[in-house]
Amino acid sequence: MRRDLFDEEHDLFRETVREFMAREVVPHHAQWEKDGIVPREVWKKAGELGMFGFSVPEEYGGSGITDFRYNMVIVEEVIRVGASGLGFGLHNDIMAPYMVDLTDDEQKQRWLPGFASGELITAIGMTEPGAGSDLQGIRTTAVREGDHYVVNGQKTFITNGINSDLVVVVAKTDPSAGARGTSLLVVERGMEGFTRGRNLEKVGMHAQDTAELFFDNVRVPVANLLGGEEGQGFFQLMNNLPQERLSIAVAAVAAAETVLEETIEYCRNRTAFGRSIGKFQNTRFLLAELATEVEIARHYVDKCVRALNAKELTAVDAAKAKWWTTELQNKVIDRCVQLHGGYGYMLEYPVAKAWLDSRVQTIYGGTTEIMKEIIGRSFGF
Ligand SMILES: Cc1cc2nc3c(=O)[nH]c(=O)nc-3n(C[C@H](O)[C@H](O)[C@H](O)COP(=O)(O)OP(=O)(O)OC[C@H]3O[C@@H](n4cnc5c(N)ncnc54)[C@H](O)[C@@H]3O)c2cc1C
Q1: I need a surface site. Which of 65, 169, 246, 269 has the fewest CB within 10 A?
Q2: Where is the Acyl-CoA dehydrogenase/oxidase N-terminal domain (predicted)?
Q3: Considering the entire predicted model, what is its pTM?
């Protein structure tokens, strides 16, 4: 069915992004996978093209446009070429609401121009070695001393962990106050006592710097508190997680579509027993099933994007999108590996890399099980 989500401006922007990916990313990504990181220069080049901070007001160097379809175009084009090292989605889709909506004028002046130009790379530190799904179980603390918070603790699995200049750290400012005792603080590159640990070796997404972060008596100015009020962190996170989850769902559908297209082409050309493998009924039925499910997923996700733009996307809508599309992505890619035979296991084939890159999608941003909890709770049992 015809997709009617985008206007002409989005299509033009897609051309720009596609051209950027072909020129600045595709020729280098294999090397970045070996390096385990993407160079900062590529962030600056993307920033020059206006790829960051659409929602950043113009006076701070952004476009002042709150339209998630632009974010979606970037995610889709990044996924289409398998550039899983670029942490642009995290910066644009996940961090922008924190940096734009929760900052005061002084913070905006300090951070937003760099955010939009790609000179200040962002990250968010929620997860700790002992607490991921159970966010309230975090142990990082921020104790107020005059004009500073003294931050102690550790984070792990942090996307853009090595490259980031600004890390929104989730910390307990009042450990006795439960959900009301959590705050969000921006820890900046170079602050004394803030160190990076290992750039973690992952199953896939080898060019993405996913790292451990350590905070040892880091003195963070009170001026770096987000949202202007202590103890609001948990609610601020809950508010922003639907957009994060939708971004992951957008990536999931784009990845499933891309791999499916490649696989259909592969099945057309590969022969066995004197005919194209696409002529086997098993192949056609399997591709028919996958194509049906992916198209249904596409329309639900597009609808969610419209709902987000209209400020109507609920946590339950986003949870449904996140778990269903990422589980589907894994199923589609796994089945497509099978249709490639032995070649599907060779990293020179995009399907093999997609298989490795996709596995994490049902885990980060809230696991499938946590998504089902969110949906299940809405029944009010
Ligand atoms: C590549 C990568 C990038 C990441 N990037 C970031 C990042 O930028 N910032 C950040 O803060 N975090 C990040 N994460 C962390 C990610 O969000 C967590 O790994 C995820 O939320 C799960 O937490 P956990 O690993 O502690 O697993 P756990 O919470 O220990 O879960 C283990 C298992 O128990 C299940 N489980 C837990 N609770 C329940 C329950 N109530 N009911 C049923 N089942 C349950 C889970 O579903 C899972 O299957 C990243 C992780 C990866 C792998």
Answers
A1: 269
A2: 8-119
A3: 0.98
